Automatic annotation (TrEMBL), chain A:
Pfam family membership, one: ATG13
Phylogenetic classification of the source organism: Eukaryota, Viridiplantae, Streptophyta, Embryophyta, Tracheophyta
Organism name: Rosa chinensis (China rose)
Keyword RNA-binding tagged: no
Residue intervals of the Autophagy-related protein 13 N-terminal domain: 20-259
Keyword Manganese appears in the UniProt entry: no
Protein name per its UniProtKB record: Autophagy-related protein 13 N-terminal domain-containing protein
TrEMBL record, chain B:
InterPro entries per record: ATG101
One Pfam entry name: ATG101
Recorded family membership: Belongs to the ATG101 family.
Species name: Rosa chinensis (China rose)
GO molecular function, one term: protein kinase binding
Protein name according to UniProt: Autophagy-related protein 101
Amino acid sequence: MASSHGNNTHSEAAMKEQIITEFYAKSLHIILESRTPYVSSRNYSGEQALSSPSSSSSSSSSVRPRDKWFNLALRECPAALENLDLWRQSNFEPMVVDVVLVQRRLVSDLVECSPRTDLARNLSLKERYPYCWNYEQEDFWCEAKSEKIIERWVLQYDTRKTRDTKSGSRRSSNNPLQMLYKKSILLLRSLYVTVRLLPAYKIYRDLNSSGQILPFTLAHRVASFAEPFTCREDAEMQRFEFTPVDTGCGRLCLSVLYCSSLSDVSSEPSTPMSPQVIPDYVGSPLADPLKRFPSLPVTGSLSRATPVSSSFSRRHSWSYDHGIDSPPSVSFSPSPTRSEPHASISNPRSRHFPPTSLPRYPPETSLDYKKDVGFYEYCPSPGFSPALSPSASPSLPISIPGNHVSKNLLRSESAPVSAPVAKRANSPASSQKLNFPPSPPLTSTSSGTFKTDKATVGTSVEKLFSFGKGESRQCSGLKISSGGSPQISFSRSSTKSFPDDFDDSEYPCPFDYDDDVTDPGSRPESFDQRHEPGGLFPIKKSQDAAVGALVRMLKKAPPLRQEVSDSVSLSQGCRPEMWSDGKQEANLSSESQAPVQPADSSTVISSGLITSKTTADALEELQSYRDIKNSLLAQSSKSHV
Amino acid sequence: MNCEVCQLKELEVEHFEIREVLRCILHTIVFNRALGLVRPKDVDLELFEITYVQCGDLELEKKIDEKIEQFISWVEKHPNKKSQVCLSFFEVKNKQPSWFTNKTERLYWEQWYINLNVAQNPKAHSTKSHHSKVVVDPGESASEERVARRAALEATLHEVLFQIVKFVNEKKDHVPPIPNLEGVVSFPYEITIPSSSDSAFGMDMIKRMLQTGHPTMLS
């Protein structure tokens, strides 16, 4: 840089400082904007507006002051803004931005017999709910998550080596400030391009544009220091260093370490979805009852003592899923402590764009604080939510009876709430701690204590499926999956688990008899059973047609009780009471389990509700279905074998 | 005054890929040189898993597309040729107000050469590959090959984009000061394609070199 001019030195220094500050800001903005799903304006009209209301303005041609900096108008990125404010006062400390790939390990870990893609595929049946994003849900997954830093951006203002690079200023350099500014612009332009060339961008793009629910998401952390990588991590990383910009009294150095191979992740979602049955998936450990509902017995006993909590522990809230505005809030009435964090979380803004940085492991003293920990520690991008959202959103409302219940269907659901209870059940001592969901996944506690989360995961998966094809159906709720292509796989996880879990206990539900029947084929209702590994269903892959036909048949078949499905919403009102009895709860949930079928979720509801139905009735129904199925099986075996 | 020149790695493209590839490269370069107020626009390529950035300037887009079309029609007339597209940035200076001319002069300060090798008709490829697969029907092996070729092109294109990023990063000093102009693309630029009379392309370049007097141009 050229010499500084005497008289202006002061203001020049101030301007320089401002340029540097803004450079930090812009860099962070550029990085996070393309790493925080649902924040960019990549064609998300409605959803985006929901997730970040202010973003709409970015598309307009108005130029905000921030845009003028470096002549680069960026989209709104609240995540960046939040961090920026902190940085403005930070006196040019280094800024380290870690981009973290969070994968739901449950898929690979739990589902031993099914390839990961299965779940991806299944999940993707669901439409996304980008705005139903929720920290609490985050917690459910925390055991199932694996994190990997896939990018580390380091921006620092290096004042120590005032290496004299006089190389510049051959041309324009009269004004060092101008020169600095121009070079900063150039650097930021190339940063903008580079960010999109790195592998992580594909993940971001998939998260944002696929419309699928993906078993991974991106999160980020901003700090002034970098946790060292392990050797192994280090070896995987490639480095790209931007040419530093000389400011005259220091250098702006920007570099990125990135994982060059993320193909395993990003290729997953590209698997085309098909209504194909995935045989292995049925019996997958995802559906493993023990894993999924480890807390149930416990909650049962718990709930006997405390009816209220039992409602929390209810995992199968099918009815609520489809419920409209039943007043479940009554039964939910959470303890004030719990409701508080929930309430705050439910604020869409805070949910989506939590501050991410700084205190990494603050003491978990209070619930509220704990929440903050979650935010700071770990800022899951909203993109994560879609996968969970159907069940995630339900969790919010619980805490806020009367608040969201009537407004949002999703919110009236209770499933996620059960998690805290489950945790409590598991480790009563730490209940206080565990109460609050958004536990920082990075802390050591998370992995140890939250074993039950798997269960919840399972639940949420089920709930996804129970939602059937999309939000549009929420209201009607009853015939959710009646679409043209029967996507059987999705009901699988739900059906499977319960029977196994409770096969020895006494069920009032007629369908539970099925579970005792050794021949899975005898359960016409639950497709899943047939596709269990080791199940009798002979054809593994090409039975789509048969299954499709079966599904269609089932769809056409009259509901077990027609009037029941009509009265779902009504029944919801009375449901909570049922739940107050722990035992019954188990029964009920198992009831709702057994009949679950892809074709008609209304049946789920109805069967769950109608305990008055006699076993004989059910058996009768069952028999007729069995006949249908047998004939189908015969057909298919003829055609396929 | 020096003119920096960047020769981009050669890309083997098929005819139908020319448009996307050129768009991607040209826009990326221009974006890096558009120092006016830019509202970037991300564009995903259709053929490749690549996202590039546009300036969001309609006029620029139009101009680039026009040039690409010209280039494509040139390629059609001259099959099986390696070809170059050149994107140059310059400043306009008034020539010294001499007494017989007051022309303006272009001072080129940066030139990018995009090297394309437009491949033969893909059919020729598939026939060659017969020996590789025995049982598989030719259609399948051809498509396999196409996939492989596409992947290779994607990788090279990626490399080229990184090449641009690196170049842009390393060479900043020669970039003129930002003119106080309205508009996104702050510096005048031109895109040169081989002209219709085949040999004239090289001549063009030489002529321009002579005109602008940049000895470093092809260095």
